Amino acid sequence: MLWPANSPDLNPIEHMWDELCRRVQQHHPPPANLGQLLQWLQQEWNGVPRAFICNLIRSMRQRCVECLAHNGGHTGY
Fold first, then answer.
1. InterPro entries annotated for this entry (predicted)?
2. Among 25, 28, 43, 67, which is most buried by a count of CB atoms within 10 Å?
3. Residue 24 vs residue 64, higher pLDDT
4. What is the rounded CA–CA span in Å between residue 45 and residue 38?
């Protein structure tokens, strides 16, 4: 299957990963080892507000509409 080079990733999990990354980066100092990083990732994953996740799901229709309006190009998401 061909995939256009400018096609946006409409998968909301990408925004979840971004949120998780920002949350983990707020820990100072950085993790001392992989075990600590895993612990922080699990802690922060469980701490993401349900409203954030629901908002990602609710935004899917508008994401698709914008993607179509921009012929598969860049959207505001």
1. RNaseH_sf (IPR036397)
2. 67
3. 24
4. 10
